[in-house]
């Protein structure tokens, strides 16, 4: 009998690609999503790729009773991958209470249910934002967790602390926090991809929408950073590399007796690219010249962040297979498919 995995936020960007990777690996998947930042159409995209329609529950994890009812209905959940969260840095600065409620209460309700299970496994969608502006690059898992630059970043820090404390108190719970750098791209089939509601908060969908004529021009936040071209440097990782890492981490929890009670891994390519380099990579694969302008720095942004992936490479036997041009090409293919629909 296949293991049954709950994926919260499973119709979102990273969640949907991870559902595909799980199903292709033979797992049964149940998705929880309240569709606040996703579309039910993504379910069709997943099914088209894998020829399997995952079970789906339209549920708001902030509703504690609804979470209790879910676990009463699905008593055979073997593991949880928790993506469901609000994730826009700027919005979190404007509306911190929304972020604390949505990102922390939901985590607590899930863990309260899991600790009652026999051998629960939990994977947390964390972020490199926990490091703030690191003192040394590339960033290892041993880098100090600094005061968060935004309420969003703070929810990831507090979330990790909640999981660590819970694992300490509940020895039969095993958990992994995966600290992502900057996920971009889409599934190579272009059946699923990043689907922001309203104005994109992330760089790549803004680039692709601008190239498609939906946006007048790309706004680049700041060109006076202490970097070679003045723009921020990030570690852009293909979403399918990220999805694959979740499956490997889950299998470690399920199968590997060596897995510790609580572990943390960085997930990135190990290479930093500036915003302008990302724009040039897109222009190269798309053949399109992108109109852009420089605007003021954005509150909460740091100068540079890219991963030291030695731990994930060695312990998980995982490494990123795709580069930034591969990711940009898939993102553009996805955008073009969206344009065909409209």
TrEMBL record:
Q: Quick one: which pathway?
A: Carbohydrate metabolism; galactose metabolism
**One GO CC term on file:** cytosol
**InterPro entries of this UniProt entry?**
NAD(P)-bd_dom, NAD(P)-bd_dom_sf, UDP_G4E
The alphabetized UniProt keywords are: Carbohydrate metabolism, Isomerase, NAD
* Domain (NAD(P)-binding): residue spans on this chain: 6-329
What class does this enzyme belong to in the EC scheme?
isomerase
| Catalytically driven reaction(s) | UDP-alpha-D-glucose = UDP-alpha-D-galactose
**What top-level branch of life does the organism fall under?**
Bacteria
Q: Which GO terms describe its molecular function?
A: UDP-glucose 4-epimerase activity
Q: What is its EC number?
A: 5.1.3.2
Query: A Pfam family name for this chain?
Result: GDP_Man_Dehyd
Cite the record's note on assembly. Homodimer.
Concerning PANTHER family, the annotation shows:
UDP-GLUCOSE 4-EPIMERASE
Q: Which family does it belong to?
A: Belongs to the NAD(P)-dependent epimerase/dehydratase family.
Give the protein name, as stated in the record: UDP-glucose 4-epimerase
């Amino acid at each position: 009998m296949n293991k049954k995995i709950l994926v919260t936020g499973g119709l979102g960007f990273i969640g949907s690609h991870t559902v595909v990777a799980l199903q292709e690996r033979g797992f049964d998947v149940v998705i929880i999503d309240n569709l606040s930042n996703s579309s039910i159409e993504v379910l069709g995209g997943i099914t088209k790729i894998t020829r399997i329609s995952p079970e789906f529950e339209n549920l708001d994890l902030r509703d504690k009773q609804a979470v209790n009812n879910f676990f009463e209905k699905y008593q055979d959940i073997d593991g949880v991958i928790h993506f469901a969260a609000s994730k826009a840095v700027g919005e979190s600065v404007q509306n911190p209470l929304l972020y604390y409620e949505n990102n922390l209460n939901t985590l607590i309700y899930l863990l309260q249910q899991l600790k009652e299970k026999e051998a629960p496994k939990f994977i947390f969608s964390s972020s490199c934002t926990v490091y703030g502006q690191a003192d040394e690059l590339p960033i290892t898992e041993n880098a100090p967790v600094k005061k968060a630059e935004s309420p969003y970043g703070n929810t990831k820090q507090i979330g990790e602390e909640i999981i660590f404390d819970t694992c300490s108190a509940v020895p039969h719970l095993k958990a992994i926090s995966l600290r992502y750098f900057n996920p971009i791209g889409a599934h190579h089939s272009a059946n699923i991809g990043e689907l922001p509601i309203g104005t994109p908060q992330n760089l790549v969908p803004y680039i692709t929408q601008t190239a498609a004529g939906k946006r007048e021009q790309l706004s680049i936040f700041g060109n006076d950073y202490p970097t070679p071209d003045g723009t921020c440097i990030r570690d852009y990782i293909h979403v399918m590399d990220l999805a694959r890492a979740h499956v490997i981490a889950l299998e470690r929890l399920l199968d590997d007796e060596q897995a510790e009670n609580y572990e943390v891994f960085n997930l990135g390519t190990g290479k930093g690219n500036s915003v302008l380099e990302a724009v040039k990579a897109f222009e190269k694969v798309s053949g399109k010249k992108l109109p852009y302008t420089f605007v003021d720095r954005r509150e909460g942004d740091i100068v540079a962040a890219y991963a030291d992936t030695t731990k994930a490479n060695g312990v998980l036997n995982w490494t990123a297979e795709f580069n930034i041009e591969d990711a940009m090409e898939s993102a553009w293919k996805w955008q073009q498919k969206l344009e065909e629909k409209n």
